[in-house]
Amino acid sequence: xxxxxxxxxxxxxxxxxxxxxxxxxxxxxxxxxxxxxxxxxxxxxxxxxxxxxxxxxxxxxxxxxxxxxxxxxxxxxxxxxxxxxxxxxxxxxxxxxxxxxxxxxxxxxxxxxxxxxxxxxxxxxxxxxxxxxxxxxxxxxxxxxxxxxxxxxxxxxxxxxxxxxxxxxxxxxxxxxxxxxxxxxxxxxxxxxxxxxxxxxxxxxxxxxxxxxxxxxxxxxxxxxxxxxxxxxxxxxxxxxxxxxxxxxxxxxxxxxxxxxxxxxxxxxxxxxxxxxxxxxxxxxxxxxxxxxxxxxxxxxxxxxxxxxxxxxxxxxxxxxxxxxxxxxxxxxxxxxxxxxxxxxxxxxxxxxxxxxxxxxxxxxxxxxxxxxxxxxxxxxxxxxxxxxxxxxxxxxxxxxxxxxxxxxxxxxxxxxxxxxxxxxxxxxxxxxxxxxxxxxxxxxxxxxxxxxxxxxxxxxxxxxxxxxxxxxxxxxxxxxxxxxxxxxxxxxxxxxxxxxxxxxxxxxx
Length: 510
Hints:
CATH class of the domain at 134-316: Alpha Beta
Radius of gyration: 40 Å
CATH topology of the domain at 134-316: Rossmann fold
Shape: flat
Strand content: 5-15%
Mean pLDDT: 75
Largest sheet: 6 strands, mixed
Helix content: 55-70%
Number of strands: 8
Number of helices: 15
Structural class: alpha/beta
Order of helices and strands: HHHHEHEEHEHEHEEEHHHHHHH
CATH superfamily of the domain at 134-316: P-loop containing nucleotide triphosphate hydrolases
Distance between the termini: 122 Å
């Protein structure tokens, strides 16, 4: 008995043509692959048969062509795979400045109006120390670490202020020390780290840069802040010795562990010298009858390990020490010069921006026909960018500046009505404005736009060394909304005062 046929569901009947098409497509695909395999096989056998009958010279030429095609194809594939990836930046190590280049920059910056007196003093002090020929050792460390006590231990009889509360050293003090080998050194007692006056840290760091050898005084293992400060000193490149103070707190094996820990954290290239800077200690004497007597006595300083460590540096080539010291001073002078140039340019840029903002305001007030203000503002905007590029010594093509202004114009169109509404609300606080409010509102808006645009361009030139449209336009949009009401009120007062002056002048003439 035949089985009854089950009726197909509507969904199955709808998918039936699709399944038939897929089956036909698969059959055609399999047939095409079989034909392709047969064709390639026939072609390969035919080529192999002909190559066997060809001379050796033909074989060589044929193989060279195959290798060249394979290499070319591989290169094309590699380029396609790397298409769209960001190019890897070449890693260039910044070279320390030399004296000739630094002095050339100094002359150029001074001609541009930069205050370079402090940098000149830095180079003059270097010349003085070169002439004297002394070895400078900077004694560095946190407050209460024992810097001054250590210097007193190295220089017995020297009157040095020591305060158990810390913070005694408030400026750089210099002491001359003659080593057992007859070398003459100058010990610079630097202000302690983390004191109340924040400028002390910078003072100590600058003096450490000027020294031949840096002596860092600490107690036991390093804290996080001490480690960061010490890493900064290591990165300066000058020879550095860590003086581990108050070793009487540790037993022999504990001192070994502390030294290993310090060497592990700061690197093998830094020498660790345990010291005891003296001071006083409490001594208890017990008599035969059981009585106890407590007294204070001077603790004997133990600085021999440190003396030997310093002597080893002094026994090296003095020209090497001088070269390291000079390089560190040049780096310090360059940092100060960069800061001075940046500060000078920021001040000049702000003056340029404010000047063009006022011109934009007065230009809008002076516009006498529709479209005139657009022409005025376009001219001013182009010259604003041109002057800022000249200030930051960035070459800018007119086409690039005009393209940037066109892109900024699109952003201005999106925000113009909102700015007008805001300025209109602000002008409601000024009595008796009358019908001139429309032109005054446009003038204030143009002033806001020029302030925001100029700051964005200046920031791009300072941070990137070029006028990069994308980031500069984003900064421009952010600047438009930054402290908007206070800026608009300030410009509105300027416009209102200018209009009143014009009205008064017109009345007097009439």
